[in-house]
Design a protein that fits this description.
The structure holds two protein chains of two kinds. Helix content of chain A is 24%, strand content 38%. Chain A has ten helices and 19 strands. In chain A, helix 3 packs across helix 6. In chain B, helix 10 packs across helix 11. The radius of gyration of chain B is 22 Å and the shape is globular. Classes of the chains: A alpha/beta, B alpha/beta. Chains A and B meet through strand 18 and strand 19 of A and strand 23 and strand 24 of B. Strand 19 of chain A pairs antiparallel with strand 24 of chain B, so a sheet runs across the interface.
Chain lengths: 455, 484
């Protein structure tokens, strides 16, 4: 018996209510999702690419679902650690999995740019959702199918051709519930030819002791010559289980940057699946995870070089302390007839305690000869000599450790293409290593700032 | 353009070498009917006159095998194998035991001559003892007496079962249990013969021990079983070389090699594998599904695998080291060349269990034609394996745009004092290097030869002298043409 069954049963029983509280474009794919899930099971521990993550077990508990879309009293006044000083963003919220519209958008978006709820979309937005929703993430993937079956809302970001959105679009996801809750959200990003945009997504949990299963499917379309940056920052609670699956399609000459950062979480499984379908496209896929306690961080990546003359670069870094478990499984596939491909993949890890565990599997699958591909993986510790040297210079052992770990993480942070965000991330990582993130003091300032804007 | 075409032709020519060792020896072979059931297992055991415990071992393995399924996780396209269409035992019919070379079947001697490993020559010149396995039963063992003086046991497994049952019983199946995997279970049930080596405490084996395997009778799978035990402070270098006659029907080979390395002992295991890889269109060829594993049981023990793989239609092989003893060392050096429609999924496993254990992996893949060549390796560091160290380097060289090179490393680290490194590169043969050689008056074909040889050198130099020569020959045969 797979954990899937309880969700398909749920849909069979309450499908009408789910559909009623959603929109026709989202409902259109539910039968296909149901069919795709028939007789399937979720990946379990031991399956290829799931060496440490057991999705069957993750989906098995009986979570509540807000199928009738009852209002949640989420608190937008609460300070968020992802607040970026000196960076003004167009800010949007998703409470649990419900779109909450613009919070503190200062200024307006350029003409034609749409940020909209998937549920309550106007005609123009619905047209775009109908065109792209479910077209990038394949429904035969059980994670995608489950999300498609249950997702009732989400966000659409649409940037029309040759439009430059200067101000980053920020999406803050808040989880708040009294009892165990499953949320299914959907993010759809369409950046048309020649357009440019940046997006920052942050995950927070406001009720730290409640169990959450938070599933997310992100679909990103990057048109010809378009540039898109996607930063995904997870700073949730130890009871938050996140299963995220990102699917991106790149056209010729496009430039995509994805940076996934896990600072605080319970269990996280991130899938990044990028298909490069046009020549001379560039892809940067970066990731970083800091794990302590019993955090569990599993990243799986796939970059498909389906055409030639493209360049991809992948870097994932982990620092694991206490009983944290980290996993990285990455694959680069160079399809036949994709000449002049350059693809690099690197995974560097530090195990800082004797109970921490790292599992890594960087893979290359290459079906053509005119390529330059490389991958590397290391698991090691902090340099003892550097530690010793710093102590001789009067830097305490603890401080030296923090400094080295920060330095270790710096090349992922350096990949961030927004200066203000880069600084903020550096600060957050510093706090995280100092163990004071949970009581982040600087947030008081941010709170005051929030209050001002609100007034 | 001409130049490009020219270099392409040379590459084609270079990678199009036909199999040189394809011939069938017409020897009177004793073959049992095709198919496998408990009776066949009992029959094999009885004609070999095995003791009860070994029959039990075989039957347990057979029963377990029946519950298992063929593994499909490898990056291989394996056509369905009908295990009932294989004959599980083939032995040259016994005449009176040969007392000298003159008594050896002339056909068999001709086979060795064609392979260029005439026993007399080897006996006289190189001092290598040869335990020649023709199909499944050992026919000739040389230098036995000299080895016996030192207490080294080097004989076929059947002889060992007869003469040293306690030794075999103690070690058989301890490194590769019959439950290990599908092919290991099959082998444990029906293994016909193989070599047994025991090096007693403190003995350094004075010569390289070598076995030439040949698959001979049509349609017979060969199920070798090799067991090597190096007791405390012992040393042995073991060579395994394979060439097989040309065949149209696929042949299955599922061997097991088990190695036990005790305190401060060292075993060096070298393989040159050149079984029939199938013809240019991918027809025929050997299926090579081998389980090779060594257990470094003792402290300061060392096991080194070196392999040059040029043959077989399908290779599924992961020589592994279980580093259980503190300060033990595992090494794996490999060159795998695939051409035409060959497929290889090969690599190693390094399981670090003891403290201060070290392992090195150097793997060089060369893919030509339409072949698919994968490296698959596992490095696991257990929580108690403090201060362990691993370095892995696996490079792939692509010689055609229709071939594939893949790398699947698995790294699993469970403590905070170990360092594991993995590096891999994949690239095409460097045109600038060819151009540079051309400038210096070296023809393109010689240049490609030089580059490929240089690329594999790091591994080839790890082979014992005698073997290195043959290994280079085999690389040349597989990349034949004008490559020098």
């Amino acid at each position: 018996m797979s954990a899937i069954n309880q969700y398909t049963d749920l849909y069979r029983q309450f499908g009408r209510r789910i559909d009623a509280a959603s929109s026709p474009v989202l409902n259109a794919l539910r039968q296909a999702a149901l069919a795709a899930l028939d007789g399937r099971r979720l990946p379990a521990k031991g399956d290829e690419n799931y060496e440490v993550s057991d999705l069957e077990a993750l989906y098995a508990p009986d979570y509540g679902l807000n199928i009738d879309r009852l209002d949640v009293a989420a608190d937008t006044d609460e300070p968020f650690r992802c607040d970026v000083p000196n960076l003004s963003t167009s800010l949007y919220y998703i409470f649990n999995d419900m779109y909450h519209g613009s919070g503190f958008t200062s200024g307006t978006l350029p003409e034609g740019v749409m940020v909209s709820s998937l549920r309550n979309a106007d005609e123009a937005a619905s047209k775009i959702i109908g065109k792209y929703y479910g077209s990038i993430a394949p429904i035969d993937d059980p994670q995608v199918a489950l999300n498609t079956l249950l997702a009732q809302d989400g966000i659409l970001v649409y940037v029309p051709a040759r439009t430059v959105v200067e101000k980053p679009i920020q999406l803050v996801n808040l989880l708040r519930a009294a009892g165990p809750l499953m949320t299914n959200r959907r993010i759809l990003v369409v950046v048309e030819a020649g357009a440019q945009a940046k997006m920052l997504v942050c995950d927070h949990t406001q009720t730290a002791d409640v169990d959450f299963l938070n599933t997310q499917v992100v679909e990103i379309y990057v048109g010809e010559g378009a540039t898109f940056d996607y930063y995904d920052l997870e700073e949730a609670s130890g009871h938050t289980h996140r299963v995220s699956s990102l699917w991106a399609r790149q056209e010729a000459g496009s430039n995509l940057l994805i940076n996934g950062i896990t600072l605080m979480n319970g269990t996280t499984r991130n899938d990044y699946h990028i298909d490069i379908n046009g020549e001379r496209a560039e892809t940067q896929l970066l990731g970083m995870a800091i794990g302590s306690g019993s955090q569990h961080i599993d990243n799986h990546t796939y970059i498909g070089h389906n055409v030639g003359y493209c360049h991809s670069n992948e870097l994932f870094k982990y620092v694991l302390d206490d009983d944290a478990v980290g996993a990285f499984t990455g694959k680069i596939l160079v399809a036949p007839g994709s000449p002049r491909t350059e693809a690099y993949q690197s995974n560097r890890n530090i195990c800082a305690s004797d109970r921490a565990r790292m599992h890594t599997k960087p893979q290359l699958e290459i079906y053509t000869d005119d390529v330059k591909c490389g991958h590397g993986a290391t698991v090691g510790q902090l340099d003892e000599e550097a530690m010793f040297y710093m102590q001789t210079r009067g830097i305490s052992c603890h401080e030296a450790r923090t400094l080295l770990m920060q330095a270790f993480m710096s090349d992922v942070i350096d990949g961030v293409r927004l200066e203000a965000l880069r600084d903020r991330l550096r600060h957050l990582v510093e706090k995280r290593f100092a163990g004071t993130l949970a009581q982040c003091r600087s947030c008081t300032a941010a709170q005051a700032c929030h209050a001002k804007i609100k007034k | 353009m001409d130049k490009e075409q020219d270099s392409k032709n040379i590459l084609d020519e270079a990678t199009g070498g036909e199999y040189k060792y394809g011939f069938v020896t017409d020897i009177d072979t004793h073959v049992i009917p095709k198919g496998l059931d408990e009776d066949v297992v009992r029959y094999i055991s009885s004609i070999k006159g095995e003791p009860e415990w070994l029959l039990d071992f075989r039957l347990k393995a057979y029963r377990h095998w029946q519950k298992m399924e063929m593994p499909h996780w490898a990056h291989l396209d394996i056509p369905p194998i009908d295990f009932n269409a294989i004959s599980y035992y083939a032995a040259p019919k016994k005449k009176e035991g040969p007392k000298s070379m003159d008594d050896v079947d002339p056909e068999l001697r001709k086979t060795f001559d064609k392979l260029g490993i005439s026993l007399e020559e080897q006996m006289r010149l190189s001092g290598v003892a040869v335990d020649a396995v023709m199909d499944s039963v050992s026919v000739k063992t040389t230098y036995k007496e000299r080895l016996a003086e030192l207490g080294v046991i080097f004989c076929s497994i059947s002889e060992a079962v007869r003469d040293y049952p306690d030794l075999v019983k103690k070690y058989l199946g301890t490194v590769v249990p019959y439950t290990d995997n599908f092919y290991a279970a099959l082998n444990s049930a029906v293994f016909s013969d193989g070599s047994f080596v025991y090096i007693p405490k403190g003995v350094r084996c004075p010569m390289e021990l070598s076995t030439y395997f040949r698959i001979n009778a049509a349609d017979t799978g060969q199920f070798e079983r090799t067991l090597i035990v190096a007791d405390d402070d012992a040393y042995v270098s073991y060579l395994e070389g394979c060439t097989a006659p040309m065949r149209d029907e696929n042949q299955l080979h599922a061997a097991i090699v088990e190695i036990v390395v005790e305190d401060r002992a060292m075993v060096k295991y070298s393989t040159v594998q050149n079984w029939y890889p199938g013809d240019k269109d991918g027809k025929g060829g050997i299926y090579n599904f081998v389980t090779k594993r060594g257990l470094c049981r003792g402290d300061f023990s060392k096991l080194s695998w070196t392999q040059v793989e040029t043959g077989s239609a399908i290779t599924w092989k992961y020589p592994s080291c279980v580093l259980a003893g503190d300060n033990s060392v595992g090494e794996f050096y490999s060159v795998a060349l695939t051409n035409n429609f060959q497929q290889a999924d090969t690599g190693t496993k390094m399981i670090h269990l003891g403290k201060n254990t070290r392992s090195t992996i150097v793997s060089k893949g060369i893919s030509a034609g339409h072949s698919q060549n994968s490296y698959r390796g596992l490095v696991r560091v257990a929580p108690k394996a403090a201060n362990s160290r691993n370095y892995t380097q696996c490079d792939s060289l692509l010689l055609s745009d229709t071939s594939g090179a893949h790398t699947f490393p698995y790294i699993d680290v469970r403590n905070d004092s170990s360092v594991v490194e993995h590096e891999a590169t994949t690239s095409k043969i460097n045109e600038e290097q060819i151009f540079y050689c051309n400038q210096r008056g070296i023809s393109t074909e010689d240049a490609i030869g030089l580059i490929v040889n240089g690329y594999a050198k790091e591994v080839l130099t790890k082979l014992p002298m005698e073997f290195a020569v043959e290994a280079q020959k085999l690389l040349q045969v597989s990349l034949e043409g004008s490559i020098g």
